[in-house]
Structures are given as structure tokens and as C-alpha cells.
Amino acid sequence: MNISVVGTGYVGLVTGVGLSEINHNVTCVDTNPQKVDLMSKGRSPIYEPGLEELMEKNIKLGRLRFTTEHKGAFNNSDVIYIAVGTPDNEDGTANLTYINQVIDVIANSITEDKIIVTKSTVPVGTNHLIMKKLNEKLPNHIKVEVVSNPEFLREGSAIEDIFHGDRIVIGADNQLASEIIREINKPYNIPIFETDIRSAEMIKYASNAFLATKISFINEIANICEKVEANVEEVALGMGMDSRVGNQFLRAGIGYGGSCFPKDTKALKKIAENVDYDFKLLSSVIEFNNRQQRKLLDQAINDFGTLKGKTVGILGVAFKPNTDDIREASSLVIIRDLIKMGAKVKVYDPVAIDNAKKELPIEVEYKNTALDAINNTDLVFILTEWDEFKSIPLECFTDSMLTPNVYDGRNCFDLENVKNSGINYCSIGRKYIKNQKVKL
Ligand code: UDX
Predict the structure, then answer these.
(1) Longest dimension (CA), the chain
(2) Helices (H), 305-351
(3) Which residues belong to any copy of the UDP-glucose/GDP-mannose dehydrogenase C-terminal domain (predicted)?
(4) Which residue, 16, 188, 274, 392, is the most exposed by fewest CB within 10 angstroms?
């Protein structure tokens, strides 16, 4: 099948590469010529394990190409995938500016009937709006059918997810369009769920909101565990053995971040508000996550009295490991506040430093190794569970910090090992190990 994919962000690029790998002829379209040049050479603008290898392979095989020319790409394709961003507006609603721009370009470009597949996460009802707008703008003899095909891939494991996801959701009003999209996806060998357009749109928001709720739930349990001297990791293991609960997304930590959960939870709350429904549970999930992101910072302020003038090491800026994405990461909240308070902040992340430099205050110092970031510090925050951090010998903290106070937002170390290490170790939902007096 000949396919174009508009937008080469996370979703668009991985979608295009995935479709080319299962033997479709794919043209990815983006308005940014530098990005198109880079991708045409098999280089990915985002850090995603395994992605460049597949880009290079499929470009070589002639199944994958990149262009800034919408018109040519669309007219050589049977199906057009829309994968442009839908960032959040100030009020939490999804911003559809890019979607509207694509609608105009499609309307001005295509010369025959097409199937339009929406990969972007859009509010319920948007696909019908896209279909209506396109059919109004196009001459009478050209018709489009719109199919909702939400994306569930996770950053950092996008390649694994695209070929081994749990399901592919296809929402369509038109039987033939649904069948064509099912055929396109068949080689993935992943269960396909066909439904109506609005339900498909809702599945995406409901799934992300549910997962965010699950994380906030275990984080609240963690906070209670600390007070009743239980261990959240044991609790999560015991809960997860019940297949109705499921053992995934029960890792307690300093809150969720990233490009999807914060945005999609807010957007779903707005979708509910627009139909006069107060989604109270989701509102608490969002508010609680904002508090959880600051939890260890508040604990450290409480321990030290003030962090003004303290030297603080930060291990991890990315919102999770195996990505350079820092959008809505808990690290941003903590680092910005530390700088405001007058602390000296030294930051290390294996891949996200370039992105951090664009976002964080200029006072932040960047280090090339984890050890450089913790050297001569009063306290350290671990904010991303990179494997590299989990394997830091605990003596490094005692040997190189001024006072070894470690605030671990991702439970990277085993409590048994920490007990005799000499460090003060505050993690999430587990006993606070105090080996030394905090030096003020
Ligand atoms: C998420 C969804 O998983 C994916 O299906 C959707 O397409 C996009 O949004 P992503 O944002 O890439 O994917 O990452 P994910 O692995 O889901 O993690 C999101 C956030 O939740 C991260 O900040 C992570 O640290 C946090 N998290 C995840 C936890 O705190 N605990 C967990 O148990 C799992």
C-alpha cells in the first residue's frame, strides 16, 4: 500500500518506520526542511532505541522516504496518516491548530478519493469534524473517509510497542475504510479492535487517564505506606498478582510526566466539562500528581530547614529512562524551585542534557558524568531511573558528597544495601533510612 504520514514527531516517525518495515511504501511529510534532510540520511531527530537502524534499513530498501512536498506525497498515496501534535492550550483543551493546517493542505492537494487516518490524539468528535471540513472544502467528485487509529506506543520502547503492542484500535463509520486499515495493519500480527469513531477517540483518552490514575493510586498508597511502616514495593507486588489489578504501572515514584499523561488527563477533564460532567476522580489524579512531583523537595526542605546556599546534585532530567524527552518531567519542577530558592544545582542525565539546556534556568551547571554531579554536594535527587544510576556503588555517595543525603524519587536502590551504607536515604513509600545526622 502507498501511504503518507504527515508530521514526523514521535508518533508520526515511528508510525512511518513501522509501516515501512511491514512492507508498505511510506512517505513521511514534514514542513521542516532541516529535519527532512536529517531523516533522509537515516538519522532520527529524537532519541529512541532501535529507531535509526530501522530508518536506515527501510530507506535503503526504498520503502521509506521523507519530503517537505505534501502535494506529491498525498497524490501518490492511497491513505494519508495524520500524526501532527495536539499540544494543550492554557485551559487544558487540545490545541487543534496543526490538525486544521493539515486539513487545509489535504483539501488543497488531493485530486482523488482518499482515506485519512488520524493517529494524533484528538478530542471526541474531532474526526467527524475533520471529515465534515474536508468534504465541504473538496470539490464534489472527491470524497474522503476518516478513520481514527489512536497510538499507544511508549517513548523509550516505541519499537517494541509498534511490533508487539497489545491491540490496534480502528474506529470507522465506513466498513470498507475500516477493512482497508485492518489489511494495512495485518502484518503486525497484533489483535485488532474495530469500533466506531467516537469510541476509538475515547479509548485513547480513557486508557491514558486510567494509567495515570493507577500511578497516582499507587503513589498515594506509597505515601500512606511511609506513615504506617509498610513497603510500597511489597504492596505493589502483592496487589499485582491479582490479574484483575495487573502488575504493571504500579511503580511508585515522584509522579508521572511526559508528553501524554499530563496533557491527555487535562484534555479529558475538559472533554467532560464541555458536556457538563465534573470528572472529580480525574481532577484529583491531576492535582495529586502536581503535589507528588514536589514531594521529595518538600521533604528535603523539611530536613535541612532551608536549601538556600546548598549544593544539590540532580541525577536524571528525562521524564523516564531511555528517552531524551523532558516534557512535564518532575525534574523541571524540582530544579526550577531549587534555583529560585538559591541552591547551587549540578545536573547530569545520560541523554537529555541538550533538551534540559533549552528549558532550565541559566544558573544550572551541567556535568558530564553522574559522579561529577554528586561530587561535593549536600544532597542529591535521583529523578529518572536510568540503569546507569542503579549501578552507582553506594560508596560513591559517602565518598564524594559533603553529606550523603540521597532523595531517590525512583526507588533505584535496595533498602537492605542502603541500611549499612552510611547514606541518608529517602525514597518513595519505603522506610526513610537515616544513617547520619543531616548537616545544616
Ligand atoms: C504513555 C502511555 O504508556 C502510552 O500508551 C501512550 O501512547 C503515551 O503515553 P509514555 O508517556 O511514553 O507513554 O511513558 P510511560 O512509560 O507510560 O510513562 C509515563 C510516566 O509515568 C513516566 O513519567 C513514568 O515515570 C511514569 N510511571 C510509569 C510511573 O511513575 N510509574 C509506573 O508504574 C509507570
Answers:
(1) 79
(2) 330-341
(3) 313-415
(4) 274
DSSP-derived secondary structure for 170-214 = EE-SSHHHHHHHHHHHGGG---EEEE-HHHHHHHHHHHHHHHHHH
> Residue 250: CB within 6 Å of ligand 1?
yes
- Pocket lining: 285 vs ligand 1, CB cutoff 6 Å: no
CATH number at residue 249: 1.10.1040.10
pLDDT surpasses 90 at 92: no
Average pLDDT over residues 165-174: 97
- Given 138, 168, 195, the domain boundary residue is 195
The domain of 22 spans: 2-195
Please identify, among 175, 195, 215, the residue that sits at the C-terminal boundary of a domain: 195
pLDDT tens-place string over residues 414-434: 999 999 899 999 999 999 999
Q: What is the pLDDT of residue 437?
A: 60
Over residues 199-206, mean pLDDT: 98
- Which of 51, 261, 266, 288 maximizes ligand 1 atoms within 8 Å of its Cβ, making it the mutation to test the pocket? 261
Confirm whether 250 is domain-assigned.
yes
Across the range 209-216, mean pLDDT stands at 98
pTM over 0.90: yes
C-alpha 61 to ligand 1 mean position (Å) = 33
Q: Is the CB of 321 under 6 A from ligand 1?
A: no
Burial 409-436 (b: 16+ CB within 10 A, else e): bbbbbeeeebeebebbbbbbbbbebeee
167 touches 236 (CB < 8 A): no
74 in the same domain as 48: yes
Summarize the confidence of residues 163-186 as an average pLDDT: 97
How far is the centre of ligand 1, averaged over its atoms, from the C-alpha of 372 (Å)? 29
226 lies in the same domain as 256: yes
For the chain, percent of residues with pLDDT exceeding 90: 96
CATH number, domain containing residue 122: 3.40.50.720
Residues 228 and 161 in one domain: no
Choosing from 225, 260, 412, 426, which is the catalytic residue? 260
Grid cell for residue 379: 544532597
